[in-house]
Amino acid sequence: MEIICMDCGQAPLKAQKENIRYLEGGLPNVILKDILVETCPACGMRFVTIPRMAELHRLMAKNVILKPGRLANYEITFLRKTLGLDKKTFAAKMHVRLEQVSKWETRNAPATISPSHDLALRLLVAQGQRFEDYFGEVDAVDFRSTKQPPPVTLTVRDNHWIKEQLAA
Ligand SMILES: [Zn+2]
């Protein structure tokens, strides 16, 4: 079945599966595997189809709150948005001033989040999303580490988003 480009109407789209870096979620290191990408040979337009977005974002959030090092600025922003909170409401929930949230989230020399606020944010997200296995794993968090983990590859298997396990 051929689908004509919705943008230029000049040519049928060519479909293929690609691994794509998913930056729209706000995290720089998420790779989605075997994603349907349809490309127009005439105008070069790309149409990317990402299935089950809500579930994907829940898995991304879970992956962030289980990471072993301190939360980075972009991760704090991502988790705040996952909670559906604007900066002001988030500041109130975290018992900090609005300026503190901006200092955590800024791209330009962000302030390191304190261990207690880091933990509170993880728990807020965990509580909101009912991660049953969260509390056992939080003991493994090394709050002294600010090292960022390697990229995570997410893929759909049996109709659900899963984190791809790296070969040992
Ligand atoms: Zn086109």
Summarize the structure.
Helix content is 35%, strand content 19%. It is built from 6 helices and 5 strands. The radius of gyration is 19 Å and the shape is elongated.
Describe what this molecule looks like in 3D:
This protein has 168 residues and is of the alpha+beta class. It folds into 2 domains: 1-52 and 150-168, no CATH class; 68-148, 434 Repressor (Amino-terminal Domain) (Orthogonal Bundle). The chain has 6 helices and 5 strands, in the order βββααααααββ. The protein has helices at residues 53-65, 73-82, 87-94, 98-105, 115-129, 134-137, and strands at 14-21, 30-39, 46-49, 152-157, 160-163. Strands 1, 2, 3, 4 and 5 form a 5-stranded mixed β-sheet that branches. The site of zinc ion (ZN) has 9 residues, from loops.
Instruction: Count up the domains.
Output: 2
What's the architecture of the largest domain in CATH terms?
Orthogonal Bundle
Quaternary class: single chain
The count of strands amounts to 5
What is the strand and helix layout of this fold?
Blueprint: E1 14-21, E2 30-39, E3 46-49, H1 53-65, H2 73-82, H3 87-94, H4 98-105, H5 115-129, H6 134-137, E4 152-157, E5 160-163
Parallel strand pairs: 2-4
Antiparallel strand pairs: 1-2, 2-3, 4-5
Helix pairs in contact: 1-2, 1-5, 3-4
The structure holds zinc ion.
Residues 5, 7-8, 10-11, 40, 42-43, 45 line the site of zinc ion (ZN).
